[in-house]
Write a structure and sequence with these properties.
The chain has about 120 residues and is of the alpha+beta class. Helices cover about 35% and strands about 20% of the residues. A four-stranded mixed β-sheet has the order 3-1-2-4, with helices on both faces. The longest helix has 17 residues, at about 90-110. The N and C termini lie far apart (about 30 Å).
Length: about 120
């Protein structure tokens, strides 16, 4: 059985998220509207599969919602050029750490970013 690998991924969000979502706006006070709004996530699926889960409001067998409402409502498409250089990670903990590092790096570059 192949080992599970964790990947980070980036979804471009509609800029409407900045005007319509107070939490998103408050998390990105540095945003000047020039670059895009993004969601950074981490998954054991392929980024394409994970985006599809977000867009369909995926819930697990116990009924817990495992999709981001922000991506479900505002997600447009994957921005592979922003994450494809990052190798898959062998543990969930490493994946979560990389998710945060990538999100904060993109925010420093001028993007508006949401991550969990």
């Amino acid at each position: 059985m192949p080992k599970v690998q964790y990947r980070v991924y980036v979804v471009e969000l509609s800029k409407r998220v900045f005007s319509e979502n107070t939490k998103f706006r408050m998390a990105n006070p540095q945003f000047n509207g020039v670059l895009q709004c993004l969601y950074v996530g981490m998954t054991s699926k392929t980024p394409k599969e994970r985006l599809e889960q977000h867009k369909t409001g995926y819930r697990n067998k116990k009924g817990y919602k495992l999709s981001s409402a922000i991506v479900e409502k505002y997600g447009m498409y994957l921005r592979s050029s922003l994450y494809q250089h990052i190798a898959p990670m062998p543990s969930r903990a490493e994946g979560l750490k990389m998710e945060e590092q990538l999100a904060l790096a993109l925010r420093r570059q001028g993007y508006a970013v949401w991550y969990n």
